[in-house]
Design brief:
phosphoprotein; Heat Shock Protein 90; 48% helix; 9 strands
Length: 231
């Protein structure tokens, strides 16, 4: 009989595989919900709210799963960074189309302020996932309006999501940059989304500069303002 120790199960790997499967399942649910709404549109305001709740909660779960999987890959250093040139308007339009059902059922006005010729170098999938996450949160907390904007400031691309809700709570505005292990569970959540956005921003580097995020309540439309800076 061999006395060699048995290799234990890598629970983190098992969990990551399970998260990946769950993410795919939730994605299928979201696609099915969109098809259902096209074939059977809401007949009244009550039904519209029910569709909206289903769409939002499914999108939120999908976001959390994507973030968990991405953080796992970051910490295990097998998250590749694929930098290429992209037009910003394509990124914004993709996210608007992706969340069309949720935006429509919640009767939200969504505007885009972006030069159609503006392009930059970054990882499309990672940056899109940040914008998607912030947009979903904006849809939840806005009163009725969201603005996606892009500009170049001090040789950095600035992608912003503004809403006309009540703004970010002090606990988020005063929060220093920290690791995922420092995230605290509170009424405002774990702030995993902020950690996720910060790490993705920092992965984008150019010479001695790296990306970062900024939160404020200085939105031109009276609510919260999230900005992602990419060198």
């Amino acid at each position: 009989m061999s006395d060699s120790p048995k290799k234990g199960i890598d629970f983190a790997m098992v969990l990551a595989s399970s998260v990946h499967d769950m993410k795919n399942s939730v994605g299928m649910l979201l696609a099915s919900l969109d098809q259902l709404m096209e074939s059977a549109p809401p007949k009244d305001e009550s039904q519209s709210r029910q569709y909206s709740t289903l769409s939002y909660e499914a999108s939120r779960i999908n976001n959390e799963l994507v973030q968990l999987l991405t953080v796992y890959r970051m910490q295990n250093e097998f998250l590749p960074l694929r930098i290429d040139e992209h037009y910003i308007v394509d990124i914004f339009e993709e996210q608007i189309a992706r969340n069309h059902t949720l935006i429509e059922t919640r009767d939200i006005s969504l505007d885009m302020d972006c030069d159609h010729d503006l392009n930059w170098y970054f990882d499309r999938d990672l940056v899109s996932s940040v914008i998607h996450n912030v947009l979903i949160n904006g849809i939840r907390y806005t009163s009725n309006k969201i603005v996606l904007s892009a500009k170049v400031e001090n040789d950095m691309l600035v992608l912003s999501v503004a809403d006309n809700g009540s703004g970010y709570p002090p606990s988020m505005l005063d929060r220093p940059s920290c690791g995922v292990e420092d995230a605290e569970v509170s009424k405002d959540g774990t702030h995993l989304g902020l950690y996720f956005a910060e790490r993705i921003a920092e992965m984008h580097k150019e010479k001695n500069r790296h990306g970062f995020i900024k939160l404020s309540n200085d939105s031109d439309i009276g609510g919260g303002l999230f900005s992602l800076y990419i060198p």
